[in-house]
Prior knowledge:
The chain is an alpha/beta fold. It has 10 helices and 8 strands. It has one domain (4-126, 190-269): Rossmann fold (3-Layer(aba) Sandwich), CATH 3.40.50.
Amino acid sequence: MKFVEEIRAGFKFFKTGRGKPLIIIHGGPGLNHKYLASHLSSLIPMRELIFIDQLGCDETLNSDGIIDAEKTYKHLKSAIEVAVGSKSYGIFAHSWGTYLALKLCNESASKPDELILCSPFPLNWEGLMSVWSVMNERRENKLSADVLKKLESIDPQGSLNSAVKYLDLIRPLYVHDPKFADQFEFFFYRMDIQMSVISSLIEFSQTALLEQLPTETLTIWGEEDFVPRSAIQPLLEKSKETFVLKKVGHSPFVEAADLFSARIEMFFNS
């Protein structure tokens, strides 16, 4: 995917496509936009896609100090205000990005009028703990003994390269069917950011924020996601539209690419 890179007011934007702006909020914490970019190319004819790396996750713009959830949110909120100005816009958020998107729908002066939440982040701390439990179980069941041994030898906080290598080894956890694992590629990972952001979320709950969802909200979730239905059930009930995919894990844009694109196109055209 080819981007126009733009830096304004200290924020970097990666833009492609045409039409109404669609802000892309990547997952993580600690990832950047690159793992999503190629998988959203089918949306280019429908919207102007604007990718924004979260605080500390840009490979060229540095940030200082401990990064927590609130700093991450405020950085993204300010970046979106610079990117869209007074224009109407939409949001596509994946995984952890949905936590930030829900805050934006409640707290930002300029709120999106259409929202796509893909493989949502749990709505509260208890749900997040259930995710770690599922991940640990799948780690033992889906990864070979050889991979588990390699993971023990890697310090994901040692360097960017070791962190990305660590994620590459656990890619099968992000899909239901192992044949899709190689199509889900990580390019960047900062575990220190992930740990500091997650530790700042203790006892969080976003259930009350669902009252402020945009009228046009689509939630996409795979039944084999490591985020269990129980962790996001209120969101599935509150969303105007839901699209639940069977035999799909945390990466619907990889495992069900055609269905994923067609459903979003239908949403945009409704």
